[in-house]
Amino acid sequence: MSIETIALTHTYMAGTSRAVVAVDEVSLRIGDRESVGIIGPTGSGKSTLVQHFNGLLRPTSGRVLVDGLDLWETDRDDPARGRRGRGRRSELRSIRQKVGLVFQFAEHQLFEETVFDDVAFGPRNLGLDESEVRERVAGALAAVGFDPEEAKALGQRSPFTLSGGQMRRVAVAGVLAMRPATLVLDEPTAGLDPRGRVGLLDALTRLHRETGLTLVVVSHNMEDLARLVDRVVVLDRGRVVEDDGVREVFSQTERLRALGLDVPPVVSLMQALAGRGAPVRTGLLDAAEAAEEISRWLASRADPRTEGR
Length: 309
Ligand code: ADP
Ligand code: MG
What we know:
Blueprint (H helix, E strand, L loop, with lengths): L2 E10 L7 E11 L4 E5 L6 H5 L10 E6 L2 E2 L12 H15 L1 E4 L12 H11 L4 H14 L4 H8 L8 H13 L5 E5 L7 H18 L2 E5 L3 H7 L2 E6 L2 E7 H5 L2 H6 L6 H11 L11 H16 L7
Parallel strand pairs: 3-8, 3-9, 6-7, 7-8
Antiparallel strand pairs: 1-2, 1-4, 4-5, 9-10
The structure holds adenosine-5'-diphosphate and magnesium ion.
């Protein structure tokens, strides 16, 4: 599924003296099965932007198209009114459902008595019968990395007895149970301990790889993005200032630092080595890759035949 924004602008408190242009003429296309990271300093409009992707926020101006369908074109603009207008409304509703949005600190929105009921909430709202609901809950809990035994035991517990990482995964499962084609996550690992973080990242990586789910991930954590996405969009004051492959964006260390963003430690390390004349490749994102590159360099140094090459 594709999501496209055309000159999308969102102004909070428009028309008042406190008006804030949070998203400023953003034109962006996210294609089917892509994995895209969105970074930018605090207040640059990341959360506001992604809340337009499923129609949660309404643009002040500009358009949002999901699979080519304008989320906000009103029936008034639609020459086909009446029955066809209603048909269009339900079409829009199902399109919006195809874009699942996981909010920042999504676990704050868990509210049912059991984990099962929480994940089942969306599917039950769709009016699915209980056997289908059970299937969806089991599938969604598996998708976020709980094995079947674990999921069964967890299902009957209160969400509030779980660890932070488990709660976050349950919240993601609640969105996945709606079977979205695109999953949008706002700061998915914020506040998680390293184990919770790795558990969630692994689950998301696997989902993207195995099911082709389109991923849009807002994150401050460059290491997370290096693992999860192929492309990175950089926002600054509501505008897109960079949109490129993850390696290309993350190798522009000066640019990122100027925006107050952290550069992945592996990138800094390789650039520091290269800056001191070491013949190593920069632009590596992964610690294992970097370790291999450094070993290769050290091995070549130890061999007198290639010394000084
Ligand atoms: P980010 O997610 O990149 O931190 P946000 O989209 O949350 O950025 O915010 C962008 C701008 O909009 C900021 O200046 C923020 O203060 C403002 N803003 C966000 N939400 C609201 C709101 N509900 N009402 C008024 N201003 C808001
Ligand atoms: Mg935000």
